[in-house]
Amino acid sequence: MSNTEIALTAEPKKPTRSQSMTVLLLALLLGLQPVTTDLYLPALPALTQGFDASMVQAQLTLTALLLAFGTSQLFWGPLSDKWGRRPVLLGGVCVYAISAVICALAPNMEALIAARTLQGVAMGACVMAARAVVRDLYEPTEGAKVMSQALSGLGLIACTCVPVGGLLTDGLGWRWALSSLVLFSVLTGLLIYFYFDESLKQRNPQALQTKSLLMALKRIAPNPTFQAYSALSTASFAGLFTFLATSPFVFTQSLGLSKTVYGLWMLSMSMSYIVGTFICRWLLLRISVKQCVTAASFVSFSAGLLLFTLTHWYVSEEWFGALAVMLPVNIFLLAHGIHQPCGQSGCIAPFPEMAGTASALNGFSMMLVAFAVGTWIGTHMTNPLMALAEGLLLWSSCLALIGWFFVRKLPLPSQASP
């Protein structure tokens, strides 16, 4: 799409307050995703029992949220290209806070699923716009570094989510765990209102027109760089989601641990992810993005293979327990800390003038796959441990194939995006 094909309205860009504030805001916005899913996990078995709901309904509180999260981005992306990132962010945070209140007060499982769906729509606005802001402000390689810093912050947020969710659920009940989302969203909204300056350099008044959308999709979807990095971030997130959706049942039912102990094990997972984001930044100073991804993809595969092997050894061996599950999961999360900054920044790098739309397509693919994974898990929870092992092996194998056969063969950054 050339400049003659689309009218762009120039908008003077206000200077950002500081890069550290930008990273903090990005971390909070991206952190809405683990706050919405991870903090909720310890409460999932309790609310399922409280509402006398089925396992399929319990999984639907996650999968419906993620489907709404992914689908809504197809609207939020072009809207942010037309109106700017700031109004979309503020509107999204407001709707999120309202939906969080409804979730905490839900009288039955059907109302909770509906409120979680609305929450997913609002979360889509915040996370999509945050990824687009990175492309607005930074060139591709620098954007990967800034994204890894923001995702380090996301990891710190995720560290507290499951332990806090477990403590609140054990001590006060699952409704208090869901109520904490209201506080987080209000705090994030206030910081955006006072400290976020519009990042979009040029608004596109035609971004929501059907012809313009079709032209954008025609340009973005076939792009090899977009396809490779979007597939990378999607497969890595699918592996993470497989663990998140099965872990409360693996730890509290299959392994018989308390929700608080489960939260502490999840803390180790978040720490591994944070370490992965630091390794990502260290590697990007020394090797290319493609080399980082290729190396990390084989680490992912090793993790999936290790978990699958340990699980199939488990017949009556007493030594198998939480450590044997978390060791390969932590290895997978280490590589996840490399895949996500590189994947999320890489897939939108070729499209600075339509970063919102490209981010939305990437987010949609991630959540569509997560919805499919969640649906599959809901029908295979007679043995949660096997569902986890098989799912993680599948997605870690996909990451190895993507890293070796797609990302590794992309053009050099001087010829295309990283």
What does this structure look like?
It is a single chain. This protein has a two-stranded antiparallel ribbon with strand order 1-2. The relative contact order is 0.16. The chain has one domain: Growth Hormone, Chain: A (Up-down Bundle), CATH 1.20.1250.20. It has 418 residues and is an all-alpha fold. Residues 1-16, 315-319 and 413-418 have low confidence and may be disordered. 78% of the residues lie in helices and 1% in strands. It has helices at residues 19-37, 44-50, 55-83, 85-105, 109-137, 140-171, 174-195, 210-220, 224-254, 259-284, 289-313, 322-348, 355-378, 384-405; strands spanning 9-10, 202-203.
Summarize this, please?
The chain contains 14 helices and 2 strands, in the order βαααααααβααααααα. It has 418 residues and is mainly alpha-helical.
In DSSP terms, counting alpha (H) and pi (I) runs of 4 or more, how many helices? 14
Oligomer: single chain
Annotation, overall tally of beta strands: 2
Number of domains: 1
- Overall geometry comes to globular
Structural class: mainly alpha
The average pLDDT is 82
Q: Distance between termini?
A: 20 Å
Strand order of the largest sheet: 1-2
- CATH topology name, in short, is Growth Hormone, Chain: A
In what range is the share of β-strand residues? Answer: under 5%
**Helix-strand string:** EHHHHHHHEHHHHHHH
Assign the CATH superfamily: MFS general substrate transporter like domains
Radius of gyration: 20 Å
